[in-house]
Amino acid sequence: MGLSIQKVNKIYQSGGTEFHALNDINLEIEIGEICVILGPSGSGKSTLLNAIGGIDQVESGSIAINDWNVSSLKNKQLVTFRREMVGFVFQMHNLIPNLTVYENIELAANISEAPLKIDEMIKAVGLEGMADRFPRELSGGQQQRVSIARAIVRKPKLLLCDEPTGSLDSNTSKEILTLIKQVNRNYNTTILIITHNQAISQMADRVIKLKDGRIDSVSVNDTVYEPE
Ligand code: ADP
Ligand code: ADP
Predict the structure, then answer these.
(1) Cβ 172 under 6 angstroms from ligand 1
(2) What Gene Ontology terms describe where this protein resides (cellular component) (predicted)?
């Protein structure tokens, strides 16, 4: 159980030439881990994250998460997999500007569970009293909190974050980091984070370095830094 990636290859075709974005990736991640993915720009970090999250398909190899064999799922099953298993957080939070905080989260929620679940999430990410605000009325950090609430409202087993603090100052980054850690603790969510943020790497259980579409190194942190 957990996340198991075996011999994964991803090739992009562009202008008649092939580009090997992922080469024979093997990786094992346990349930409940926080895992950081490092590597220079173009090393395949987003490609790997998107493949794990089922928003991008791979040429060969297998990606398995719990009972799901992600790499062999077809379109409709992929949608189900994403809805049941995965939450995404991006650098640019992608909130819908003309919807309120509440409505942005509602879009991702199970109808049967709303509105109780939405209120719970707003509280969980520290945005009490802000349900009726629009994204433009919030700070960058608050907007990212909304996108985390949206990502976890279905209680995904896997939270995938692509540069979640990439456009935030260091204090705000720290708050977001603390929040991500809370999600990990409270829901035992397995979390994968692409980041250049050193503090996040210190908090991670496992640090994976990519280089030219290959695993350069995997290190397991014995002493995990705890954000206060
Ligand atoms: P990283 O996230 O580490 O910056 P990416 O996974 O975004 O790297 O990209 C890895 C490589 O694959 C880059 O060279 C990028 O230009 C290329 N690439 C990414 N997406 C596509 C695509 N849709 N079509 C062609 N090439 C792509
Ligand atoms: P990152 O911030 O991860 O480095 P990029 O700026 O490389 O992301 O890419 C942003 C988006 O553009 C990604 O979704 C990626 O799939 C796509 N992309 C990147 N490189 C190419 C490319 N050469 N051709 C087509 N799409 C690409």
Answers:
(1) no
(2) membrane protein complex
